[in-house]
Every structure is written in C-alpha cells, then in structure tokens.
C-alpha cells in the first residue's frame, strides 16, 4: 500500500502521476501517466553516454523528485536506476516504480538493484535517505560514461566493487560533473553529499547545477535536447520501451491463494485500495 499512498500524494513535475487504482479478482492495478519516451536505460542502450547538458538536466530533475520524497513525504525511494526514470512526451524525466519505497527516516531492509545499492545497504546496516543520493551518483556516472562504475556479471563482484573499488573518472570529464559525482559516491553515508537536514538543498547547490535556475527547472522551463517524436502515441506506440518489458503479463495469484481465513485476511488489507481523484467520474 506504500506505493499507492506515495503516488496519490506525489504531485510533482518529475514524478509519474497516478490517475486511478483498482483491483480485479487476483491483481492490483495502477492507472498512471502514459510516458512515450521510454526510460533512461533505453536511451543509454540506444545512444551510449549522453551529452553534458542532458546529463545536467536529467540529474537535477531526478534530484528534485527525490528531494520531494525525502522532505515532503518522509520517504526513502530505495531503487534509483535508469530503468525507473521515464522520459515524458516533452523530454523531461519522471521518477516511477515506488514498489521498494518506504516512509521512514531509516530502514535496515536489504533491497534494491545490485549495481545501484549503497555500501551501507550491502553491509545490512541501518540506512536513510542518503542511499538515494548514492544512487544519483551512480546514475550520473552512467549518464556521463554510458556504463555503471561497478558493473560485473557476478553480483558478488559487483558488491565488492561497490565496497572497495576506486571510482575511476576520465580526466576529460567536466570538472563540476566529476566533483558532484564523487561527492555523492562517498562510501561513508555521514560524509556523503545529501546527508543531514539540508540534504536536498546541498545537492542542488552543487556547482554542476549552477547554470540552471531551480525555479525554472521546477516549472519545466528548460527544453530538453531529446524529445520523443510527436507522433509517438499515434504510430510508434511503445517503440521507445524495451520489447520484453512491454510484453510482460501481470503475475496473478496462485489458484486458492486467497481462499480460507488467511487469504480473507490478506484481502482485507486491500479493502481501501481503489482510488479515483475527486471530480473524476
């Protein structure tokens, strides 16, 4: 239910909007924005490393979305990765998939996607919103260089890389971009950029974002360099999305899973799941 509650309350220009929620006999459903530009993972696959200005705008928009979750909703996102950052019809990003999010100041749950986990999560230590800022650092690295700084086929090696591998930065990389990335990828969460009560403001004050006016960003006043084709809905349909992902079917509950007293109790947890905005018919 956390995902539903966060989506209802998350009225933000860089967070996907929920228009309704309902349930069928064995599935829960969200009605969300149609976002024709696919996700950042798709752009990285199609283009490789992105140009500096796109990296700057995408990163500040994601940072504003995370800051809203932290400061206004008291939530930790916990699963930042290119696959969860969608691109809308105007070319701006929308944070999506709140299935791992948690409304709490701290958590001890081991969760997330291997290459984007913060060191303290891997160590099963209590963690807070700073794990999301670590995720921004990994995301920025991937946008700038086209690959994750910790990638490996073996997930145990990925974890070791996150815990110990020095962050390699190309000398040709923009100095302000490198400085922000390295400040976010500090392994000590207390020393990481974004720690503390003024975390969001501290991140937004980074020199890398100095060329952008935050109020203009929030108003979606900057025109992104890449915008999905205007005929996307009419003729391209889901072309910007991963083909396998588009074909995924919902996973229904096993037959009989909701039978009996235990099943009835679980169903009762979702009695108030349905949601329709006020004024909608």
UniProtKB/TrEMBL annotation:
- Cite the InterPro entries for this sequence: Kinase-like_dom_sf, Prot_kinase_dom, STKc_AGC
Q: Please provide the record's keywords in A-Z order.
A: ATP-binding, Kinase, Nucleotide-binding, Serine/threonine-protein kinase, Transferase
Q: Which Pfam families match?
A: Pkinase (PF00069)
Query: What GO molecular function terms would the record report?
Result: ATP binding; protein serine/threonine kinase activity
Ranges for domain Protein kinase come to 1-209
Q: Which SUPFAM superfamilies does the annotation name?
A: Protein kinase-like (PK-like)
Has the keyword Kinase been applied to this entry? yes
The protein's name is: Protein kinase domain-containing protein
State the species of origin: Calcidiscus leptoporus
Q: What is the lineage of its organism?
A: Eukaryota, Haptista, Haptophyta, Prymnesiophyceae, Coccolithales
């Amino acid at each position: 239910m956390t995902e539903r509650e966060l989506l209802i309350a998350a009225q933000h220009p860089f967070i996907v909007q929920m228009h309704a929620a309902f349930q069928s006999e064995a599935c829960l459903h969200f009605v969300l924005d149609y976002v024709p530009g696919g996700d950042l993972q798709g752009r990285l696959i199609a283009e490789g490393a992105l140009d500096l200005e796109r990296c700057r705008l995408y990163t500040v928009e994601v940072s504003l979305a995370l800051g809203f979750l932290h400061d206004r909703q008291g939530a930790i996102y916990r699963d930042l990765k290119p696959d969860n950052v969608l691109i809308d019809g105007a070319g701006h990003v929308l944070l999506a998939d709140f299935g791992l999010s948690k409304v709490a100041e701290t958590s001890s749950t081991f969760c997330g996607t291997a290459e984007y986990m913060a060191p303290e999560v891997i160590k099963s230590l209590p963690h807070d919103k700073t794990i999301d800022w670590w995720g921004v650092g990994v995301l920025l690295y991937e946008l700038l260089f086209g690959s994750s700084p910790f990638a490996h086929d073996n997930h145990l090696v990925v974890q070791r890389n996150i815990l110990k591998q020095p962050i390699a930065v190309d000398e040709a990389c923009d100095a302000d971009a490198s400085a922000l990335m390295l400040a976010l990828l500090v392994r000590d969460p207390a020393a990481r950029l974004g720690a503390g009560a003024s975390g969001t403001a501290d991140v937004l004050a980074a020199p890398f974002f100095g060329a952008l006016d935050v109020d203009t960003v929030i108003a979606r006043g900057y025109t992104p360099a890449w915008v999905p084709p205007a005929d996307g809905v009419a003729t391209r349909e889901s072309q910007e999305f991963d083909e396998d992902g588009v074909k995924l079917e919902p996973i229904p509950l096993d037959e009989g899973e909701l039978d009996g007293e235990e099943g009835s109790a679980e169903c009762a947890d979702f009695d108030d799941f349905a949601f329709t905005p006020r004024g909608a018919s």
